[in-house]
Amino acid sequence: GKIECGESFIPETELEKKLFIADKYVWQIRQTLHSELNYTASAGISYNKMLSKLGSSCNKPAGQTILSLRHVRAFLDQVKISKTRNCGGKVGAALEEHEITFMREVKDMTTNQINSIFDPPTRDWFINLCRGIELEEVRKRRDPRSMLAETTFPRVRQLKGLEGVIKLLVSDLVPRICEHHEETGRYPKTLTLSYRDSDTRVGKHKSTIMPNCETNYQHKLVYELCVRMVKKVAKEVLPCTGLGIGVTNFEHITALNSNIQSFLKHGKSPLSRRSSASPSGTLCSST
To answer: How far apart are CA 95 and CA 60, in angstroms?
Structure first.
C-alpha cells in the first residue's frame, strides 16, 4: 500500500492491519471495474468518510491511498478546507472572511478566535474535523430520483447528424434503467430531452411518457421518441453542440409490458399525450 506521500505502507497496529486488508479488497473492486466495464476509479481507505474521500482525491484517476492515524495530522495540514466534506456554504464563507484557507491554519487560532466565527456546536464539530475526527455513519445509498446520459460534441447543423448521438445516449441510458428495475422494481414515468437554445444558449427540455415495455423494445422506442422530440424543436436545437436524455418520476411496477402495441393503443403517440408540466426532478442540461 501507499501513504499519501507515496511511501510504502507497513502496518504497525491492529487497526492498520485492518486498513491493509481493506486495501486489498478495494484493489480487487477497482480491477473488476476496469476489466469488466473499462472504468477507472480512485479510492481512499481510512477510518471515516471524510478521510476516505480526501484520500481518494490523492491518486486520481486510477489509484488508491491508505490514510492511517499516524499520518492524519501531517496529511490534513496540506488540505484546503474548501476540499473537505461539509465545509462549503456558510462554514466555508465564514472561514474565508477570516482568510483561513488550510486546515493547518486552524491550529494557530485561539479559542476566542474560533468562538467569534462559529457557535459552540459548529465549533466543536469543526475542531474535531481538523483533527480527522468525524462520526457520520455510512448510509445505504438512496434510490436515484433521475438518470441522465449526456454528451457534448463539435457543432452539428443537420438533424441527421444528431441521430447517431441519440443512439449512443439511448444505448447508455436504457441498460441502466432496466438494471435498476430488475434490482428495485422501480421504473421511470417521464422521458426528457435536454438541450440548449441555439440562439440564447439557455438550457431547455422537452418531456414525454416513458415507454413501459421490455428491454428488446426499449432501445427502439426511446430512440424514436427522442428523434421525434428533436425534430419538433429543430429550430431551437440546431446548430447543436450537446444533448442530454434523462428519465425521472420513478414508481414501482411489477413487470415491464411485453406487448409494444399496448403502449401505442388507439393509434396515439406518446408525444400526443405529453403533459405540459416539467418533470418534478431537475435534469442537467448539456454544456
So the answer is: 28
Cα angle: 147, vertex 151, 152; to 5 degrees = 150
Which residue bears the cell 429543430? 234
Model pLDDT for residues 140-181, shown as the tens digit of each residue = 767 888 999 998 888 888 888 899 899 889 988 988 888 888
Planar angle of CA 86, 89, 94, nearest 5 degrees = 105
**Cβ atoms 192, 283 nearer than 8 A:** yes
Output the DSSP codes for 122-163: HHHHHHHHHTT---PPP-PPPPPSEEEEEEEEEEE-SHHHHH
Tell me the one-letter amino acid at 64: Q
pTM for this model (two decimals): 0.52
The sign of the dihedral angle between the CA atoms of 189, 191, 196, 197 is: negative
Rounded distance between C-alpha atoms, residue 17 and residue 23, angstroms: 10
Sign of the dihedral through C-alpha 127, 128, 132, 137: negative
Phi-psi region of 174 (alpha: psi -120 to 50; beta: other; left: phi over 0): alpha
Nearest residue to 65 (alpha-carbon basis) of 54, 50, 80: 54
Distances (CA, A) of 40 to 20, 30, 37, 61: 21, 7, 9, 6
Peptide bond into 279 cis (omega under 30): no
Q: Grid coordinates representing 9?
A: 505502507
Which amino acid is present at 153? F
Q: Which residues pair with 66 in a beta bridge?
A: 45
Residue 37: what residue type? L
pLDDT for res 25: 95
Distance CA 124, CA 113 (A): 13
List the end-to-end C-alpha distance of the chain, in Å, as a whole number: 39
Q: Which residues have CB under 8 Å from 172's CB, separation 6+?
A: 149
